[in-house]
């Protein structure tokens, strides 16, 4: 049996006495996609920040490769191969694609102090790595990031994380700002990362997207793990109802019906 790469044991995080996360236990194995589902304010961003070393848990522990770890900073998490890609790809619109790919890891030419950014090598590698993930329309590393589509930007950020050795890829709402075609492309890339043995944590409020790629699921509500299941164990309706709060939906339906006649919300 494959051991978990990343594991949370009863992790809680509170801000000024108010609990953003309460005793969350989760694990993700290599070559698996863990979907973290939750509505606004459920605690998804806080959980990402705990996993990526931005916040220290108030209580509970984190294990990487079976060993307990304390992240003092995002660098500690990064050094263990935990990479986070933020919603808009965390990229800089006025930077070239190649600069952005290599930011902080720039290949150089020449001898110190006369060394300089090796634009050509960086451009070639960036274009090549994006092509591996199906982006064929970016053929020039000096193109500005701001000229890429949302899906291409996400791909750039994921390609970067994979190239620099991510073992755990945390994706923060990677599909939420994208159209259907681009979202499908990003979902394909998630499956590609999974096939390479990367452990993917896919954070989303989109149940359909999660169901398309997830192996394991956890639903967060008000900072608590409200449900946890494996692929095929819940229907889309069951998950959506849980996330929206079945009672709240029923009340809304009744209210709308009193104004317009019977309404059935999806
Ligand atoms: N630094 C902070 N200080 C105080 N409260 C915080 C802080 N960060 C998050 N919270 C609170 O923790 C709760 C969970 O927030 P979080 O941002 O993790 O939710 P989320 O699921 O990511 O929501 P969204 O999808 O809207 O981004 C919220 O009530 C939020 O106000």
TrEMBL record:
Record flagged with keyword ATP-binding: yes
Domain ABC transporter, residue spans: 6-247
A GO MF label: ATP hydrolysis activity
Presence of keyword RNA-binding: no
Keyword terms of this UniProt record: ATP-binding, Nucleotide-binding, Sugar transport, Transport
Superkingdom of the organism of origin: Bacteria
PANTHER family: CARBOHYDRATE TRANSPORT ATP-BINDING PROTEIN MG119-RELATED, SUGAR ABC TRANSPORTER ATP-BINDING PROTEIN
Protein name as annotated: Simple sugar transport system ATP-binding protein
Organism listed in the record: Microcella alkaliphila
